[in-house]
Amino acid sequence: MKPKVSIIILNWNGWKDTIECLESLVKVNNVNFEIILIDNASSDNSADNLIKWNRSHSIPLFHFSEAHVKQIIASSEEKTSGMQRVILFRLPDNLGFCAGNNLGIRQAQANGIPYAVILNNDTLVDPNFLLPLVEYAEANSSTGLLGCQIRYADDQNKVWWGGGTFNAWLGSKRLYDKESSDQVPVKPYRTDWVSGCMTFIPLSVFSLIGGYDEKFFIWCEEWDLSLRVGRAGYEMTVIPTSVIYHKVGKSLGLVSPLTYYYSFRNLLLLRSRYLPRWEWICFLVIYIPYKFLQMIYHVIKFGRSFWTAYWDSVFDFVFKRFGKWQRHPG
Questions:
Q1: Is residue 330 predicted with pLDDT exceeding 80?
Q2: Considering the domain boundaries, does residue 108 fall inside one?
């Protein structure tokens, strides 16, 4: 049976979290799916450990060392339900979140899979998380992106993301943040944006609007994708009966020069792209001084690396140097 869904997971020096995520996915048996693992040039033997895990579970493995997609034909060894196969890209360079996931989605397209799930490696899934997403997408042709109920991994009754809104300046807010999970509606409901922690996308939508804008590399890309999907006339919906658990802050850290740089530079890019001209100018007048004061605070508390991150953010935006930060390790 051909898989209905490709689940795309990026790994960068985080094989322990990735294996915990895979262990939770093995328990999903009510939808046929494949796993596409993108190892972004890890330096901690991640790929070897992921291959070892795969062999211990006797799941068919396809292993590539370049960022080139190849059609995978179902084999007689594949199971009739649940995780059908694992496709591992062991990349020589770190492509980042955007390009890495775009590679995974193109591989899903080559395999003829109708749906893809972008899933953070620092998550654990409920065994029933996938079926409600597939059922909703197949019953609603206007679906652009679907999100699920995302709870904290260390407090599994507390919500981290249950939908999102934008304000007039495209400031984002997570709905039901830190609230009890019993406060979340049971029926599907609309959202302004879908979290990149778990994004379900029909590949017909990917074909029409494209995937993540690789200028962002990481951070803000989920908002840009959501805005493009919404402006193309598709609906974005939260399916609250689909539940996963997130180890918050694992990717780049909650406070680090990396998070500071990418969030600052990429918010400038996002708002310059979508805000009307005068709103954009007003935003700059407020935002640039605010980030400078924030940088001074971080320098005092954490060190001079935030000084560098601030000025690199400003000059890289002005001179249109996007993608991977030149000081990004690995």
A1: no
A2: yes
